[in-house]
Design goal:
Layout (H helix, E strand, L loop, with lengths): L6 E5 L3 H11 L3 E7 L5 E6 L6 E6 L14 E6 L2 H10 L4 E8 L2 E7 L5 E7 L4
Parallel strand pairs: 1-4, 5-8
Antiparallel strand pairs: 2-3, 3-4, 6-7, 7-8
C-alpha cells in the first residue's frame, strides 16, 4: 500500500530558468540534483513546511515539452497574496489570473516558465 506522496515531476526544456523561478519567485529550496540512469537532468525542490518535493526534469530525447491548457497545476499557500503578487511581478512574473474570492480566502494564478500554472491560496485570516 502507498504510504505517502514523495514528489511530483514536471518535464521542462529550460531547466535553469525554471529552477530560478521556483527558487527566486516562489521561495522553494533546492534539495538535490542528479542525472538519472537514462541521462535526465533532475532538480528536486521543496517548499518550507512541506515534505513533498517537486522534481524538475530536463530530458530532450523525449521531444518538445508541450503543456496543455488547464492540464495540471501546483498549489501553494501564501500568507499575503498582494505582497506575493508584487514580488512575482517585480521578478517578471505577473499574476495571470486573480486574485479572486474563494471559500475560505482568496486565490490567484501565475504562469511558471514553460506554461505550467501555479495556484496561490491565501487563507482567510481568523478574526
Amino acid at each position: 500500500m502507498v504510504k505517502r506522496l514523495l514528489h511530483t515531476r514536471y518535464r521542462v526544456h529550460d531547466l535553469e530558468k525554471t529552477v530560478s523561478f521556483y527558487k527566486d519567485v516562489l521561495g522553494l529550496e533546492e534539495v538535490g540534483r542528479q542525472t538519472s540512469g537514462r541521462g535526465s537532468q533532475l532538480v528536486f525542490l521543496k517548499a518550507p513546511g512541506s515534505d513533498e518535493e517537486i522534481e524538475l526534469c530536463k530530458f530532450d530525447q523525449s521531444g518538445p515539452v508541450q503543456v496543455g491548457p488547464d492540464l495540471t497545476h501546483l498549489a501553494f499557500e501564501v500568507d499575503d497574496l498582494d505582497k506575493f503578487a508584487k514580488h512575482a511581478a517585480a521578478k517578471g512574473y505577473p499574476l495571470s489570473d486573480g486574485p479572486h474570492p474563494s471559500s475560505g480566502g482568496r486565490i490567484a494564478f501565475v504562469d511558471a516558465p514553460e506554461g505550467y500554472e501555479i495556484e496561490l491560496i491565501e487563507r482567510a485570516r481568523k478574526s
